[in-house]
Amino acid sequence: MPVRRAAALTLSLSAVAALTAVVASPSNAASAAATPPDAAGAVASPSRLAGTAVPSNAAAASSGGRAAGVELRLPAPSGPYAVGRDVLHLTDTARTDPWVPSAGARRLMVSVYYPARTAGDGAPAPYMTVEEARLLLKAQGQDKLLAPEVLAGARTNARSGARPAGGRHPLVLVSPGFSLNRATLTVLSEDLASRGYVVALVDHAYESFGTTFPDGRTLTCVACETVEGEPTDAAEKELLARAATGRAADLSFVLDALTGRRPVWKRSGMIDTRRIGAVGHSLGGNAAASLMAGDRRVRAGVDMDGTFFAPVPDSELGGRPFMMLGTAAGHSPGSEDTSWARDWVRLDGWKRWLTVKDTGHFSFIDIPVLGEQLGVTDPGAPLPGSRSAKITTSYVGAFFDRHLRGKAQPLLDGPSPADPEVTFQNP
Fold first, then answer.
1. Parallel, antiparallel, or unpaired: how do β-strands 211-212 and 218-219 relate?
2. Which of 146, 301, 325, 409 has the fewest CB atoms inside 10 Å of its own CB, making it the most exposed?
3. Model confidence over 369-424: pLDDT tens digits?
4. In whole angstroms, what separates CA 281 from the centre of its chain?
5. Residues 107/98, Cβ–Cβ less than 8 Å
């Protein structure tokens, strides 16, 4: 399978149809050293990253085949806390954007989820902007199937600006898959916040089909086109490795911005700086490992179905715990992606290699959760979205509870009869 499909994170049509969950207007973003975006990347064009599949019969019902009258809702989080959310716009003036140097300094959008006092405090937090939804659908050739307003209308559980819970809480940095907006990891982010974590969910400029910034511009995936333009798979892999380490630098900067001498987030006092973790999907998972290799402040990490284009350096994690959670078809020992077996032996601390049966690359994010509500199924990943979300939030949550909170987690000790889809690999 070409790298552009295996790692540049192709969305299948059925996955996109599932993604009908995103909200209408951009959240009010708090800005730190804001810089106007460059015009480059402001116009989306369908990329060869896009995949194809056949949707089931449920989603497109009216308005010329575009789904209408559908209300999607993210599942309720599992923890005892209500969830608040703030949105930050950050600019790293020490670095130039690697994809569009003419844009100037590196810019990021960050959704910060946190434990809140009461569920009714604050307005419901949007999921995505309509323009982000439109660009995602257009990139997949599905803009005639689903109205972006529907995709942008899913109900989240977080409340914008909700009153925070008391105390200090571990921080988890989260990075999405290449080409995907940060909203696609909202289910996991809300669940971690409900369990008592502060979660910084990051959008990396020019690395998604569409990310809206506070000035109203929506930057598109220049990085996708750049990767696609490489002449060989080897060149693509090398560029994706650079993208992973670039994301690690982004995450390290976010950590500085949230916990430094002059933190940009007004609730930064909630963060326990001694307890920091990182998790990502696909390229974001590779970035989590690269971040740990370069930043000793990060104590634990998770890669969800991501190839290690940037290898884990020998002994560079310094005995810190790391978990790999992926598809049985793509990430079992002996499968096509050999980077997990290569880097498994380089993980020198507590570690787990878990695979989940009947899942696909997007089973660890929001897409199949929303698809299930539309009656859409990916034939290559038949595990229901509600079930894949439960497995993802349970195992990732247990991992951080064990390694950032010091709580025993029998779920991570071995196979569970309650989760027959999950295999503990031990190559």
1. antiparallel
2. 409
3. 988 988 888 899 999 999 999 999 999 999 999 999 999 999 999 999 999 999 99
4. 5
5. no
Give the number of other Cβ atoms within 10 Å of residue 380's Cβ. Answer: 15
310, 101, 128, 296: which is closest to 203 by C-alpha? 128
What are the structure tokens assigned to 145, written together? 């199937």
First-to-last alpha carbon distance for the chain, in angstroms, is 24
Residue 366: C-alpha distances to residues 83, 201, 273, 281, 296 (Å): 17, 14, 28, 11, 30
Is 58 within 8 Å of 375 (Cβ atoms)? yes
Which pLDDT score, from 0 to 100, does residue 68 have? 60
Q: Do the beta carbons of residue 189 and residue 199 sit within 8 Å?
A: yes
Q: Tokens 């708090």 identify what position?
A: 30
Given a cut of 70, whether residue 44 has pLDDT beyond it is no
| CB of 293 closer than 8 Å to CB of 319 | no
Angle between helices 367-374 and 385-405 (to 10 degrees): 150
pLDDT band at 92 (very low <50, low <70, confident <90, very high): very high
Residue % of the chain over a pLDDT of 90: 73
DSSP string, 191-225: HHHHTT-EEEEEEETTSBS-EE-TTS-EE--HHHH
Q: What whole-number distance in Å separates Cα of residue 230 and Cα of residue 70?
A: 40
Using an 8 Å Cβ cutoff, are 210 and 135 in contact?
Answer: yes
DSSP symbols for 228-265:
HT-SSHHHHHHHHHHHHHHHHHHHHHHHHHHHSSS-SS
Distance CA 136, CA 123 (A): 25
Please give the Cα distance from 124 to 149 (Å, whole number).
Answer: 16
Q: Which residue has the tokens 């902007």?
A: 129
Q: How many degrees, rounded to 5, is the angle at CA 108 between CA 305 and CA 127?
A: 70
Q: Please give the Cα distance from 282 to 184 (Å, whole number).
A: 12
Which is nearest to 4 in space by CA: 272, 257, 206, 234? 234
Tokens of 38: 């460059």
Report strand pairing: 271-281 vs 218-219: unpaired
Q: Please, are residues 2 and 235 in contact by the beta-carbon 8 Å criterion?
A: no
pTM: 0.87
